[in-house]
Amino acid sequence: MIAQCWREEIAPLDASAAAAARERIDALTKPVGSLGRIEELAVQLCAIAGGVPTHAYERRAILIGAGDHGVAEDGVSAYPSEVTAQMVGGFVAGTAAINAFARAVRADVYVANFGVKTPLPPHPRLLDVLCGYATANLARRAAIPRGDLGYVLAAGIAAFDEIAERAPFDVLALGDMGIANTTSAAAIVAAFTGAPAETVVGRGTGIDDARLARKIAVVKRALARIEDVSAPRPGTVRSTPQRTRGADVWEQIASEVGGYEIVGLAGVILTAARARIPVVLDGYIVAAAALIAGAIAPHALGYCIAAHRSREPGHALALDALGLRPLLDLDLALGEASGAALALPLIEAAARMVREMRTFAEAGVATKEDAR
Amino acid sequence: MIAQCWREEIAPLDASAAAAARERIDALTKPVGSLGRIEELAVQLCAIAGGVPTHAYERRAILIGAGDHGVAEDGVSAYPSEVTAQMVGGFVAGTAAINAFARAVRADVYVANFGVKTPLPPHPRLLDVLCGYATANLARRAAIPRGDLGYVLAAGIAAFDEIAERAPFDVLALGDMGIANTTSAAAIVAAFTGAPAETVVGRGTGIDDARLARKIAVVKRALARIEDVSAPRPGTVRSTPQRTRGADVWEQIASEVGGYEIVGLAGVILTAARARIPVVLDGYIVAAAALIAGAIAPHALGYCIAAHRSREPGHALALDALGLRPLLDLDLALGEASGAALALPLIEAAARMVREMRTFAEAGVATKEDAR
C-alpha cells in the first residue's frame, strides 16, 4: 500500500555530499565551527540536495493544514470549533499572523482544507482536499476510520502537488490550524513516546486549570484504547518511534487519536521528502505529523528542519523523539506555521554561506597556522 | 563634553506608545501572548517609534566596526593582526560570511575603519573614520589615550552619518572585526560587571589552552590598572553599570582596555539612539560597546536589540548587565555582524505583525468568551 511505496521511494540523505560540505565549510574564511547551527543546517541542505545547492531557497511556500476535531465538543480548547474556519478565512484574506510573517520572509501562503467542520467558500489560496467535516471525538471512539488513512495521506500528496503546480518552490514550511488539535497531537506524542499524558498536554491556546485537567483526562482515556501505551510508566520516554514500534502501529495511533490535518500533513512531509525538498516544521501539531511520517518512512525525517521549540511542553519531547534540534526558541505558541516562517531566512543564509563564501585559499587570507 | 550632550539628547522610550502597542497586540486574532518574543519586540519597536511604526524596517544597514589591538602581539588570538585588514577586504568585496547573510536578509554592508593597523585602499563600502593604526597593548599601558576618546566617539557619529547619507535606513545592525578584540571586550565586561577574568575570557576564534591562559593573565594584568576592580570577588556580578559606577568611570575603562572599533561602535549606538533608530547588537564585542554607550547615556540601551547569545562565555554576562535578552541562540562565535544580520527578518516580522494583523473585532472571529 501507500506506506510501503514511500518507504521504498524516499532516499536516505547523501552522506558523501554531507562530508564534502563539511570539508568546504571548514575551509571558508571564518574560524572552524564559528557559524554553529547555521553550519549544521548548510550540511543538511547539501545532504538533501546531493551537493552544494544550486540556489538559495528563495522560492518558498508555506502550507497550513486545517482541520476540526470532534473532541472540541468536550471543552478541551478555549475557543469554539467555528474559529478554525474563521481563522482560515483570515489566512486566505491575508490578515492573520502568518500572513504578516510570510510577507516579512517573502513566502506564499496556502491553506489545505483537510477537515474543517464548516464548508469553506472557494479561494485561490485554499486547496480543497477535504477528507471529512471534522474527526470523530477521540475521547470516545476512533477519530478517523482506519480504512480512510490512505485517503488522508493521499490528500497530502494532492496538496503538495497542487501548490507545486501553482508556483514551484525550493523549500516548504508547514503549519496547522484546528481548534482542539493540541489534544490530538498530545495523544499522538504520548502514544509514540510512551510519555505520560501529564507531560504531553499543555495549555494550547491558553486554557485554564479546569480545562487542562479535562484535556489530560481525555488524552488518558483515548490512550487506553491504544495497545501498549495503556499504562505508561512515568519518566520513561522511548526513543525514535520506528525503532520501538512495529511498522504499522502508526495506523492504530493515527486512526484512534489523529486529526485530518495531522495525517494530511504527514502525507505532505512524505511527499516533500520524496521530492528531496526540505520541509520546515512549525510547532507541536506538525511535530506529531512528523512522528507519523517517520513511522511510515524513517528516511523522511532527514528532510525535516525543526524551526523552533514552542511553549507547548510536549513539543521538546516530540522533537527529541524525532531526533531534531530546533533552530529558534521564541516562546511561540500559535501554530499557523508562524515559527516555521521565521526560520526560512536562516535556510537562505545557510545556503548562501556554503555557496557564496570564499575559502582562505581563494581569498588570500592568512590562516591560523600563520600565527604560530 | 560630548557624553553630556548625549545624556540630554537621547529620549527615553515612549511608555504610552508601548502600552498602546501592548493593548493592540492583545486584541489581534491570536491567543494573548502566543507570539512570545516577537510581541515583546513589537512593543519595543512601537516604544522607539512613538507609535505603530509607519514601515516594516525593510531599509537595513549593517555596519562593521574594524580595528586592530596592540595586545595581539602577546599571542592572545589564533590569528595574526594582518587578518583584520584581509577580512575587511573580504567584506567590501562581498565574499565573507556577513555578505552571504546580508544578501539573505536584503541589507547593505558597510565597514567603518576605526583603527585597522594596515592602511586600507579606498572602497565605496569602506568608511574612513580612522582614529589610529591599532591601539596600544592593553596588557602594558592604556590602549587609547584618554584625551582621544571624544574623537573616537565622534568617529562613530561620522560613520553613522555617512551611511545614512548614502542610503537611508530604518534599522541598523552592528558588528565587529578586529583580531584580539575579544581580549579587549572581556576586560571591558569584567571592569563594568566586576566579574572575574576567568568568567569573561573565552576562546574567541578558537584558541588552545596555552593561549587561553595567556589571555586570562593579560586581562587580569590590565584590570589591575582600573580602580575598584583590581580584586574582583568570584561570584559577584554587579548590576547595570550606570547604577554601580560613577558617571565617568567609562572613560577610564574605555581608555585602559578599549578598542578603537569598540569605542567607535559605542558612538554609533548613541547616534542611532538619538535618531530613534533601533540598533541590533551582534555578539560579545558589540555588547562591550553597548556597555560603554549605556554608561554614557543609559536611555540608549532602550534602542538596542540583542540579536543572539554567542558561544563566548562572557556574552551572557554582558547581556545581563545590559538588561537585554537575546533573540537567537545559534551557537555562533564569528562576529562581523553575522548574528545581528540573522535577527533582521524577526524585526520585520514583529513590525508587520503589529501593523498588518487584524483584531478579533475587525476580522469577525469568535473570541475566547464565545467558548464559555
Oligomer: homodimer
N-to-C CA distance of chain A: 62 Å
What is the element string of chain A, with H for helices and E for strands?
HHHEHHEEHEHHHHHHEHEHHH
Shape of chain A: globular
The overall number of domains of chain A is 1
CATH class of chain A: Alpha Beta
Q: What is the radius of gyration of chain A?
A: 21 Å
Write out the strand line-up for the largest beta sheet of chain A, numbering strands in chain order: 3-2-1-4-5-6
The residue ranges of chain A in which pLDDT falls below 50 over 5 or more consecutive positions are 230-246
Count of DSSP H/I helices of chain A: 16
How big a fraction of the residues of chain A is strand?
A: 5-15%
The computed structural class of chain A is alpha/beta
Query: What is the correct CATH architecture of chain A?
Result: 3-Layer(aba) Sandwich
Tell me roughly what share of residues is in helical segments of chain A.
40-55%
Report what the structure shows.
Helix content of chain A is 48%, strand content 9%. The first copy, chain A, is an alpha/beta fold and 372 residues long. Chain A has a single domain, classed as Rossmann fold. In chain A, strands 3-2-1-4-5-6 form a 6-stranded parallel β-sheet, with helices on both faces. In chain A, helix 12 (260-274) packs across helix 13 and helix 13 packs parallel to helix 14 (314-322). The relative contact order of chain A is 0.18. Mean pLDDT of chain A is 93; it is low at 230-246. Chains A and B meet through helix 3, helix 4, helix 5 and helix 15 of A and helix 3, helix 4, helix 5 and helix 15 of B.
